[in-house]
Amino acid sequence: ALTIGRFQQTILGSTAAAAPAGFAGLAIGLTLVAIHLVGIQVTGVSVNPARSFGPALLAGGHALAQLWLFIAAPLAGGVIGALLYRFKALED
Questions:
Q1: How many angstroms from the chain centroid is the CA of residue 60?
Q2: pLDDT tens for the chain, residues 1 to 92
Q3: Which among 49, 44, 11 has a CA at the least distance from the CA of 27?
Q4: In this structure, how many other beta carbons lie within 10 angstroms of the beta carbon of residue 4?
Q5: Model-level pTM greater than 0.85?
Q6: Structural domain tally of the chain?
Q7: Does residue 47 belong to any structural domain of this protein?
Q8: Would 11 be classed as within a structural domain?
């Protein structure tokens, strides 16, 4: 959830009115690369919901029982990230 929240903060920050024009794609892309480089080694991270949802349905059991967390955690991280950004808690 923390990495998803950070990713959403990057999107909000790079598309804000005060952000330099034309660099949003670069910031978002580099953040995705960093998430994958670190996350795949540690947890086999999946930023694409279809990549986690499909195999969990096919595997069933424990994977399917944890699917709610894959849905709830990014939503919670997004809400927290948006609130922190909205109340300017993320600015220098």
A1: 24
A2: 455 566 767 777 788 778 888 888 888 889 888 888 888 888 777 777 777 788 889 988 998 898 888 788 878 888 887 888 788 776 65
A3: 11
A4: 19
A5: no
A6: 1
A7: yes
A8: yes
